[in-house]
Amino acid sequence: MSMTARFVQVTPDLLAHLLRSPSSVTELLAPDEDAQIAPVALTDSMRQDWLRRMPQLLAGPLAALDPAMREAMEKRLGVSVESLQSGGGGEAILKALARRGLVRPQGDAEAPPDPAGRSREGKGESLSLGKAWHGVHYLLCGEVENGATVLSQAVLGGSELGDDLGYGPARYFTAEEVSAAAGALSRTDLEAEMKARFDPEQMTRLGIYPQRWDGGDAEWLWEEFGRLREFYVQSSARQLAVVTCIV
User: Fold this and answer.
1) What's the gap between Cα 73 and its chain centre?
2) Secondary structure element (H or E) that encloses residue 84, with its range
3) pLDDT, tens digit, for every residue of 200-213?
4) d(CA 188, CA 7)
5) 144: DSSP letter
6) Sequential pLDDT tens for the chain (247 residues)
7) What are all long-range contacts of 82-85, with beta carbons under 8 Å and residues at least 24 apart?
8) Contacts for 66-75: CB closer than 8 Å, 24+ residues apart
9) Are 62 and 211 in contact (CB under 8 A)?
10) Closest CA to 6 of 140, 135, 150, 171
11) 159-164 and 169-173: which strand pairing?
12) In which residue ranges of the chain is CATH 3.40.1760.10 found?
């Protein structure tokens, strides 16, 4: 399963609703609210096949992660790399997929929709950084994980919202925090700092997702950074909050 960072603009009123009803955040973060993917209803045979195959598929990518990120992922999935390599951990993976609304046992009732549609009212534009999220984060602050500075929070920070969705819970920034991030991302000297940090060998060595970098990736990261900056600037101008998650 590839990992991407998704950001969604929300009004302060919608953020207040999400804080009262955190389960609504799953619908909010769906890539296309008019074309949401229905969860796969697992038959017994499908379930057994997934239990056998999924540990093998995830063991390699998880083992290649930076140790700190690998430990965090193991905690979120509830299974270790060693267990996956030995063919175990399938149940934990299925539970993680179920938390993200991607699978459900055959016969289980589908989750009821938000009766008031509140997770759509007050929703603004969205942004996905694709697989560039960790590279952009690293260039912003030079750290593998999020830290205390505004720039280290822009991609991986925020206050937690709701349950673990597979790669951790959703997070949110208030309108005031969005404004602070927009200001930091708009610093005139920031791009020079980011370009000085771009070191494909070092980024690969640190396990910056997706773990393999070369000189040709620089332009891609600059473009994605520009989209992130514009997203925060527009959100700030409209006095909107932002909800984000690694999905």
Assistant:
1) 12
2) helix 81-85
3) 999 999 999 998 99
4) 24
5) S
6) 578 999 999 999 999 999 999 989 988 988 754 444 456 677 888 788 878 887 877 777 677 766 766 777 777 678 888 988 888 888 887 777 776 566 666 555 444 454 444 446 789 999 999 999 999 999 999 999 999 999 999 999 999 999 988 889 999 999 999 999 999 999 989 999 999 999 999 999 999 999 899 999 999 999 999 999 999 999 998 899 999 999 8
7) 83/55, 84/55, 84/56, 84/58, 84/59, 85/55, 85/59
8) 66/144, 66/206, 66/207, 66/208, 67/207, 68/144, 68/145, 69/144, 69/145, 69/207, 69/209, 70/207, 72/145, 72/168, 73/167
9) no
10) 171
11) antiparallel
12) 5-34+116-246
One-letter amino acid for residue 108 of the chain:
D
240: Cβ contacts below 8 Å, ≥ 6 apart? 9, 10, 11, 12, 124, 175, 178
Task: Output the pLDDT for position 92.
Answer: 83
Angstrom distance (rounded) from CA 202 to CA 55 = 29
61 within 8 A of 68, measured Cβ to Cβ:
no
Contacts 24+ apart (CB under 8 A), 215-220: 217/135, 220/132
Give, in degrees to the nearest 5, the angle at Cα 28 between 26 and 29. Answer: 70
Q: Which residue type does 228 have? A: L
Instruction: Specify the CATH number of the domain 5-34+116-246.
Output: 3.40.1760.10
SS3 221: helix
